């Protein structure tokens, strides 16, 4: 009880850094929420097309009408130098040259050639698809003795058919992205907050006066270390609960779903791992001045390497391979997996369970090493 009361007195002096880390998490989540409030949808952007029609047939006019409905028609003087300049400066993406007598030659199956000029970008590709669709449809209905009017009617029937896109995923991707980004960023806050407070507390307990009093007391090493570990666990639990409550406020209703439950479980396991990391570092060092440097190396470094600040898909493979030796990698990897789960079954949860076991294994290893170091330091003292 004496250890616990002393622990609480030291914690009160660490409220400022706790508030700072919490404010950082709230600020990040607020920015993330405002950036993801817009509804994500796909809208095809119409290409800018110039049509040079040297024919006066109904078929060529019908082709021009079709292209006009599905693109932005650019009006440029029929001058090759000006057309080349327009293509160079991307004022037009695609130029279509319809030759003279195109309609009659097409009906006679002479295969008249439509020349094109292109910028080669994605909008030009869209224009090419438009033109190819029309030409393919018109060729499929070409037969002997078909009139121009009949061919146009058949083409219209085909072009009226549009593919329907059905979204088979029921995931609320916008909300899941908010939750995923929030908990990925909490990697830095949980690690940084735990390391700062716990290392500061342990260094206080390892001061010369307190260490000598502990050595001459009747308290056993195991009992002393156990009290410290329990006290640190209470702090880590409170810090974790604080960040979970904030997630319900900033992320929203997705936290009441199974996805939210898994995010909470994953962050709890990582909080335990952060606790053991901080406990190990606190037993290794006694210098309070070095705490900020340690936070930069451990918390900030692992956040950059493992995908907390920069999404993992943008990181080089070599960096991710190195990140496998850090607990943060497995925590963030689980967060990313949770955001993609559609059906909760054994196969979909297996990677999450594997990552959780790895984090618990890290925690057990850090605890064992911490106890050994603490025992040896006390014997030496």
Strand composition percent: under 5%
Largest sheet features: 4 strands, mixed
Shape: elongated
Average predicted local confidence, pLDDT: 82
Element string (H = helix, E = strand): HHEHEHEHEHHHHHHHHHH
Counting DSSP H or I runs of 4 or more residues, the number of helices is: 15
Q: Using DSSP, what is the number of strands?
A: 4
List segments where confidence is low: pLDDT < 50 over at least 5 consecutive residues. 37-43
Radius of gyration: 33 Å
The chain-level structural class is mainly alpha
CA-CA gap between termini: 23 Å
Report strand order across the widest sheet: 2-1-3-4
Q: Helical amount among residues, as a percent range? A: 55-70%
């Amino acid at each position: 009880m004496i250890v616990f009361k002393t622990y609480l007195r030291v914690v009160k002096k660490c409220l400022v850094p706790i508030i700072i880390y919490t404010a950082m998490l709230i600020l990040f989540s607020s920015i993330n929420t405002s950036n993801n409030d817009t509804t994500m949808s796909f809208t095809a952007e119409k290409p800018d097309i110039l049509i040079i029609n040297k024919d006066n047939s109904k078929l060529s006019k019908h082709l021009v009408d079709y292209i006009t409905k599905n693109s932005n028609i650019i009006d440029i003087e029929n001058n090759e130098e000006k057309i080349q300049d327009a293509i160079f400066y991307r004022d037009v993406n695609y130029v279509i040259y319809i030759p003279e007598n195109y309609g009659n030659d097409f009906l006679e199956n002479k295969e008249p050639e439509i020349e094109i000029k292109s910028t080669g970008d994605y909008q030009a590709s869209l224009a090419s698809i438009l033109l190819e669709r029309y030409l393919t449809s018109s060729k499929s209905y070409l037969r002997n003795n078909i009139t121009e009017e009949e061919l146009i009617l058949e083409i219209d029937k085909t072009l009226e058919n549009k593919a329907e896109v059905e979204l088979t995923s029921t995931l609320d991707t916008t909300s899941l992205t908010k939750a995923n980004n929030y908990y990925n960023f909490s990697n830095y806050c949980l690690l940084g907050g735990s390391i700062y407070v716990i290392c500061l507390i342990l260094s206080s307990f390892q001061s010369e006066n307190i260490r000598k009093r502990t050595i001459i007391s009747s308290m056993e090493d195991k009992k002393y270390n156990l009290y410290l570990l329990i006290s640190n666990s209470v702090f880590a639990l409170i810090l974790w609960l604080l960040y979970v409550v904030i997630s319900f406020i900033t992320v929203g209703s997705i936290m009441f779903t199974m996805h939210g439950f898994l995010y909470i479980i994953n962050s709890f396991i990582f909080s335990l791992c952060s606790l053991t990391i901080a406990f190990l570092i606190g037993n290794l060092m006694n210098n309070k001045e070095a705490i900020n440097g340690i936070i930069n190396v451990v918390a900030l470094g692992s956040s950059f390497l493992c995908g907390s600040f920069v999404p993992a898909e943008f990181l080089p493979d070599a960096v991710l391979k190195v990140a496998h030796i850090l607990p943060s990698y497995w925590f963030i990897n689980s967060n990313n997996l949770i955001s993609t789960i559609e059906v909760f079954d054994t196969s979909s949860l297996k990677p999450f369970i594997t990552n959780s076991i790895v984090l618990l294994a890290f925690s057990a290893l850090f605890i064992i090493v911490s106890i050994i170091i603490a025992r040896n330091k006390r014997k030496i003292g």
